[in-house]
Amino acid sequence: MRNIFFFSIFFLLLISCDKSPETNSDIQERIVNESMKARESIIAINKQAEIWYKSKQIDSLTNYMADDIIQFPPNNKPLTGKASIKDYWKQLFQFGDIVFSLQTQEVKANGPLAIELGKYNLKFSPSANSPVPAFVDSGNYLAHWHKINDNWKVVWDAPVSSVPLPSK
């Protein structure tokens, strides 16, 4: 019985040592494949997010955000956590309508992590008594995504406006 136990342990160790390490070309090929798959998923999420912004569905939007998300809106302090983001966008939603477009330029993924580079356009149309005037914004963004429970969720969202601030 003891010999069977040691043989089993030896056999398991032998099998676990059989896997050869990834070569550099294997790594690059894996990253290319993972990046293509992540890009497809992220583009689909972004297309849905455009619909959610337009229909003011903040709960649906934040479902694709990690619990500890940090969003860096242009010319504002960082928003930390889903509650902070909900408060920010709910306030803007109550004053008018938003049309947001997101264009993914590139995605680099490695395992459960991905970085997205893209361009955005935002148009805000105020309601009749809105204290917020109409505005448009456009620029570039970087988003850090993490695969959580097999779903891509944004962890950091950093848009960078290319619209100059109004001069005084």
Describe the structure.
By secondary structure, the protein is α+β, with helices and mostly antiparallel strands. It has a single domain (30-160), classed as Nuclear Transport Factor 2, Chain: A, CATH 3.10.450.50. The protein is built from 4 helices and 6 strands, in the order αααββαββββ. It has helices spanning 2-17, 24-54, 58-62, 82-95; strands spanning 65-71, 79-80, 96-110, 113-126, 135-148, 151-161. A 6-stranded mixed sheet has the order 2-1-6-5-4-3, covered by helices on one side. It is elongated and about 85 Å long. The chain starts with a helix and ends in a 7-residue tail after the last strand. The mean pLDDT is 90.
